[in-house]
Structures are given as structure tokens and as C-alpha cells.
Amino acid sequence: MSELSRDGVTVAPTADVDERAVIGAGTRIWHLAQIREDATLGRNCTIGRGAYVGPGVVTGDNVKLQNHALVYEPARLGDGVFVGPAAVFTNDEFPRAVTPDGRLKTGADWTAVGVTVGEGAAIGARAVCVAPVTIGRWALVGSGAVVTKDVPDFALVVGVPARRVGWVGRAGRPLTAKGGGVWVCPETGAEYLEADGRLTES
CA 98, 102, 107 angle in degrees (round to 5)? Predict the structure, then answer.
């Protein structure tokens, strides 16, 4: 990789970073990645080989996009978000290449809708998030899942379409039921409280 500018930003020679993009200090952009105009990447992000970040996409700090992740505008990613290899964030509710009369569609013929991902959430390899959906804080989307509905904070969702099968904590490990609506992380010992289908940190 070659040094692009000060602040420790590094960009591989084969990456395509638009000059209108804003890149945070310490961010690394690997081979064949494309960062489009007006995208904003936070500090200390890692953008993997072949990843795509669309125009106007905004990420927080410490975000990791693995190889060939496709993040289409106008997605918004919070701090510490992980997007696995070949995961896709869509942006068109009613996709068509042409209008009803057969004319090739342009940007003026549709309105982009985005995926929003909360702090610390992780999206597994080859998962598809169908906009407009919101993935809650510290949630975990299993590999290959297709997310068509909003995902609560700390939820573990899998399948097609994705459904909640458990809860995870900040460490990403499935939580263990302690009783009385209390869930415990087997790694950190942190406790969480479930009420009305939602999980909160106690």
C-alpha cells in the first residue's frame, strides 16, 4: 500500500478513491476498493479488497468492510460496524433497469433508500440487507441471511428471510438465559435485561 496523505491514511495503488471523498485519519483502503464521491469514512477504518462504498455513504470510526462488501448509498454505518465478505446493502425498493415504456432508467427515475447499521453491529459473509432496514446496535446478522425487516439491538438473526433466534452481547457471543428476563454473556459476564421483545444493558 502507498501513503495517500498525512494522518496515516493509506490507499493501495489499485484502489479508486474519489477526490471528493472524506477519509478519516488512520483508515486503510486495500486493492481494487472503490470509494465514490462524497462518501465519508471515519477514523481507523479498514476497507477490504474489492469493497464498494457508494456516493454519500457515511461510516463511523473503526468500521471494517471485508473483501467485496457492497455498501450502496445512502447507507449509514455507526462506529465499530463489521461488514463481512461479499455482504450487500441494497438501495432500491422496486428495482428495474428500464421505465414501463422501455427507456433506460436514470438517477432521476428513482429514489435511493438506505440501510442503517447501529454501533458495534456485525453483518455476516454474503448476507443481504434489503433497504430500507435498520440493524440495531451490537446486533449480529448471520452469514447468508436476507434481512427484510428491522433488527433490534443485540439480536441474533439468521435465515431467509432473517428471523431472531437469540441474543448476543457486545462480545458477539450468544447470551445465556439466567431467568427473570436476565441474560448473561459467557465471555464477559455482562448482564442484559429482556423486556417486551427488546434487550438492554443492565
Answer: 35
String of DSSP letters for 133-171 = -EEPTT-EEPTT-EE-S-B-TTEEEETTTTEEEEEB-TT
**Cα–Cα distance measured from residue 83 to residue 48, given in angstroms and rounded to the nearest whole number:** 10
pLDDT digits (tens, 9 = 90+) for 31-77: 999 999 999 999 999 999 999 999 999 999 999 999 999 999 999 99
Q: What is the CATH number of domain 2-171?
A: 2.160.10.10
Has this prediction a pTM greater than 0.85? yes
Given the C-alpha cell 493509506, which residue does it identify?
A: 10
What is the C-alpha separation between 146 and 158, in angstroms, rounded?
A: 8
* Domain residue spans of the chain: 2-171
